[in-house]
Amino acid sequence: MQYRDLARTGVRVSQYALGGGVFGSLTGKQEGIRIIHRALDAGINLIDTSNRYGDGESEKIIGEAIKGRRDEVILATKFGAEPNGERNQGGASRRWVRQAVEQSLQRLQTDFIDLYQLHRPFGDVAFEEILGVLSDLIQEGKIHYIGTSNHQAWQLAEAQAASERRHLQQFVSEQSPYSILNRSIEMDTAEVARHHDLALLTYSPLAGGLLTGKYASGRAADSGSRAALLTGPAARMLDPELPENAQKFALIEQLQQVADQVGMTLAHMAVAFAQSHPAVTSIIVGPRTPEQLKQYLAGTDLTLSPDLLDAIDAIVPPGRRMDDQDPAWTPEWLDASRRRR
Description:
alpha/beta, single chain, TIM Barrel, two-stranded antiparallel sheet
């Protein structure tokens, strides 16, 4: 396991981060604890979750699992994407952030959170407001560092400028999707991260499971697969039987051929690709079972040759996103009210 600098914080994090997105939903408590313990034993020291995953159950499972091992863990969680509709019980207001961090601390059974991240952008809340309360929480010792998730490059630059104007704590990281099928961060986010010394934590290296090699166009997904278990937009993105996914699955077939030619699984090639960008600090993997974690770990030392990277570039060009159904976040400026006079 390799370790890399979390920006200029002096903290070093593992090349793989363990994502808690499935804990409390697709993966139960005992299975989740086993996965966490095996990840720690393998040298993974960064665990990432959110207060919305499993409606808070993910944080509870992680808190239970790291009892007695807290010093081994760089613990990251997120706020701001709460699914409940209660007024002022979500978002990024000073009032809510203080409530959210206390709830996360309680669920995680810890006195502090290493990295506290804004889960998605909020165009109606000033960065100065958000950074103000986060700076206070750092001063109080409840969180150590702050980061963003799913932000656009221009928003990252604006946040850094707001910190400088008001002499507030700066974000030290950004969490974005990155895979062979979604290379959009290469267009600008990676360069902004490099320019502003932001650690780049990327998630979904397998494009939600598309790059596992399990799915083929026109063939129903196997029972027990992620595609069969999920519902809503995420399930549609993985459905190999949908006509609108035909082009995407044709690209996956080409990528499979490239992987076969070099004697590598498609999944291992995809994860190694996500690690190959020099701006990427850690990639977040989300195994549902200990066996899936074992498969991820088997590719830890894999590197892709320039010729292999060129072959991937020929199929999916740099900076492109081939899956427009990506459900991570929809900007508010795409709403009809913001596009029409």
